[in-house]
Amino acid sequence: MREITLKEIAETLGISITTVSKALKNYPDVSEKTRKSVIALAEKLQYTPNSFAVNLRTKESKTIGLIIPEVVHHFFSNVINGIIAQAEKNGYLVIILQSNESLELEKKQVELLINKRVDGILMSLSNDSNDENHIKEILNRKIPFVQFDKISKLIPSSKVIINDQRAAMDAVQHLINKGCKKIAHIRGPINPQNAIDRFLGYKKTLEKNDIPFDSKLVYTCTHVTFEEGVEFAKQIIEEHPDVDGIFVITDLVAVGVLAHFNEKNIPVPNQIAVIGFSNWFMSQVINPKLSTVDQPSYEMGVAAFNLLLEEMICHKDALPFKPRTVELGTNIIERESTLRK
Amino acid sequence: MREITLKEIAETLGISITTVSKALKNYPDVSEKTRKSVIALAEKLQYTPNSFAVNLRTKESKTIGLIIPEVVHHFFSNVINGIIAQAEKNGYLVIILQSNESLELEKKQVELLINKRVDGILMSLSNDSNDENHIKEILNRKIPFVQFDKISKLIPSSKVIINDQRAAMDAVQHLINKGCKKIAHIRGPINPQNAIDRFLGYKKTLEKNDIPFDSKLVYTCTHVTFEEGVEFAKQIIEEHPDVDGIFVITDLVAVGVLAHFNEKNIPVPNQIAVIGFSNWFMSQVINPKLSTVDQPSYEMGVAAFNLLLEEMICHKDALPFKPRTVELGTNIIERESTLRK
DNA sequence: AATACTATCGAAAACGTTTTCGAAATTACC
DNA sequence: GGTAATTTCGAAAACGTTTTCGATAGTATT
């Protein structure tokens, strides 16, 4: 069985390729009679347009690229979920690549996607992205581009973010409202904007409440793992036994903290309250249940695609497009790990 | 700035498009001198071939499709990881779609990928895939196709699986070796082959050890959630208070079981031992740490892509290809939840 | 000097679609 | 009956690449 083409249909019907194409695309200048016969035959033969030819002709592939630090991550896999769903709803497919938090890989993958001529690129930066030349290249080529979650403020593109600083302020204020007087912070790596913002939110909230900021109470993750949570929990208890609250960069690390405290029989939340970030599924399963900041991951994927779509449409029609930033809301979720009397 | 094409290079160099193309692809019938000049200019202009045109001409896109039940799932996201990595290593990109365990969506997505003319398709079936017509369509069109994890034995394609029955036998035997006499099973949904196989493994192992099989001790998940684990744990305790071991279809559900037992202060493993399946990251974090069956997810992705690649190469060269099945090994991981004295 | 062979190049077709533009045929209008 | 307007169609170009096959020029062989 060979491929069905417009030519094939045209020949069996004794008409031109042009007319067949027009009939299938509802052009007005083809009679009702021929349109019907074309559509009938096309359905009978199960004709589907050769997408390679369509791509070449229309210069678009209805495919977008997505680069994220890692797929195996509850937050990102939820974002992926939202992106795929929204893309599919709008007739787009998604090619996914992961940078494994490596700038080198990230660069290579941007190049892959550019060469593939995807219609647009969605991206969350890797932690050691301090060089932006590869991103500039995307913008130079006028490829529609949207950043989400881990973004660089230096790059003039659309962005989807949460207000990390405000969310962190909410979290720390929550601890203070629960009576915490000496609050430690386990922060993310140096580079990423959201780790910086959460740290700033922590610091500001202390100051606002007349609690002195002490840089010794800040612990910096390098790999953001469960094990780091365990290790920092241990250090905090040893170095600052009077700490009564911890704000942790993300739930995974916070769960590590809880695990250590459980093992050492340190009562949470009564001796130390703990609040995490991003409302990982697991945080409501662990004991004690972890209070956290809910971060709308699926919605972030949807919003990111929507922004990209807008830009792709403008790009196609050669209209100007002004980058926009969408900021999504967050909520404190109070569970057992901050439920002090 | 406009797109650089072969024509552009040819004109500035005063030679034909043919020669430029050949020079860049190292054809033997172009002189060293012209080859050098072509390559030099191509690099200077940053020429990259228009992939749309290449696709049309070569009838391949170096892109494969992947359909899985859900992205947000520790096992599948690890498989995705392996597939993407191995594909990239071999010059392929991956389009990911998720069926959300819906046959309807699955059918639509197969159609999307066929129309997109991907070079091959990788797939793990959704739970209610009892109709195979859409898969047959893939095979009819001779599109390279590999199933993994959740497969249908009725479909003659390459497959990557684990030996679910044997793995289940190992797990149940482990419980028996630990002294369990009355073992319940929380099984997966009716349809999927691996749920069936694990159930059969459970049943056979009981028989082999002269423990009577009792269908009342088998509980069937419909959605395979944490909540189902909680609920079934409750039922088991109420209906069969003398059960001393449970083999659970997957870790997520097993964690639900442990959560309920923790709440009710039922000692695990001493009153009831629990073993899960697939070595979720979380199972070593929960208290008590969950014994489980380790399932090589990343490796499964790599193996699936490798099989697909073999088939794609044969397909391109019009060579015959015989479907193969790769079976990956599993290991019992003994942790606290089965550590009885 | 005629022949055979090699090295180097390019014309042209092909992949299958979309879209412009003009031609032909039909209908409407005065 | 003549002109104008409308309807319906198709030729052809274009998208950018790959590859076949033939042509030309130069070199080597008798």
TrEMBL record, chains A, B:
Gene Ontology MF term list: DNA-binding transcription factor activity; transcription cis-regulatory region binding
PROSITE patterns hit by this protein: HTH_LACI_2
CDD domains according to UniProt: HTH_LacI, PBP1_LacI_sugar_binding-like
Keyword Transcription regulation among UniProt keywords: yes
Transmembrane segments: none
HTH lacI-type domain segment(s): 4-58
Entry keywords, A to Z: DNA-binding, Transcription, Transcription regulation
InterPro entries given in the database record: HTH_LacI, LacI/GalR-like_sensor, Lambda_DNA-bd_dom_sf, Peripla_BP_I
Record-given protein name: LacI family transcriptional regulator
Organism of derivation: Flavobacterium luteum
